[in-house]
Design a protein that fits this description.
With 205 residues, the chain is an alpha/beta fold. The chain has 10 helices and 8 strands. The chain has an 8-stranded parallel sheet. Helix 2 runs parallel beside helix 10. The two termini are 15 Å apart. 45% of the residues are buried.
Length: 205
């Protein structure tokens, strides 16, 4: 999962950049524009839905995702609970939830989530107040708390170097921001999101 970030894109066209990431192997794109007006988020999500052959979801805003014709939405612990959202969204609408501790895992265990996003797995500068990194062992411990059949992906500070450790700990995949959009010190390039996505996909054959 590739997560958009206007600052890290540094003026690059997000549709073109996301298309390149998909060519490299990204299987889902999450539109994350925390401080942008809803109309701007809708506009980008609609553009991506029209341009990409993979699902596009929207961070936090289920209403925006529905307005844009997106495939789903990702919500946090402070957003409306999924058991309230599920009855009012269309069949097949993807709903993912963030989990960062055993307490949070217990809280959302009964929610009808399509996937859990667990993190931060490693130190990250791309989310303020993300919390103490879990590491592969901590990720694995939380992943085992997910309901049977619910895939768990890792997020937070993930690169092609450390992604295999999460795969070994039970991750079905990863969500990334900086590893695709900026130089991460592992031999990638901000100008080549396709190569970055390809390197990350190699951890999940």
């Amino acid at each position: 999962m590739v997560v958009t970030d206007v600052e890290l894109l540094k003026g690059r066209d997000p549709v073109t950049a996301c298309r390149q990431a998909v060519l490299g192997g990204a299987t889902i794109v999450q539109v994350r524009m925390k401080d942008a007006p809803a109309r701007d988020v809708v506009a980008l999500a609609r553009a991506l839905v029209g341009a990409l052959a993979v699902p596009v979801i929207v961070n936090d805003r289920v209403d925006v995702a529905l307005a844009a014709g997106a495939a789903g939405a990702h919500v946090g612990q402070d957003d409306p609970p999924l058991d309230r959202l599920r009855p009012v969204v269309p069949a097949g609408f993807l709903l993912g939830v963030s989990v960062g501790s055993p307490t949070e895992a217990t809280r959302v265990h009964g929610w009808p989530a399509d996937y859990w996003s667990v993190g931060p797995c490693f130190a990250t500068a791309n989310k303020r107040g993300a919390g103490v990194p879990l590491g592969p062992e901590g990720f694995g411990a939380l992943a085992r708390l997910a309901p049977e059949g619910v895939p768990v992906i890792g997020i937070g500070g993930i690169t092609p170097v450390n992604a295999p450790t999460l795969a070994a700990a039970g991750a079905a995949g990863v969500a990334v921001i900086g590893a695709v959009w900026e130089w991460g010190g592992w031999g990638g390039s901000a100008s080549d999101p396709a190569a970055a996505a390809r390197a990350l996909r190699a951890a999940f054959p």
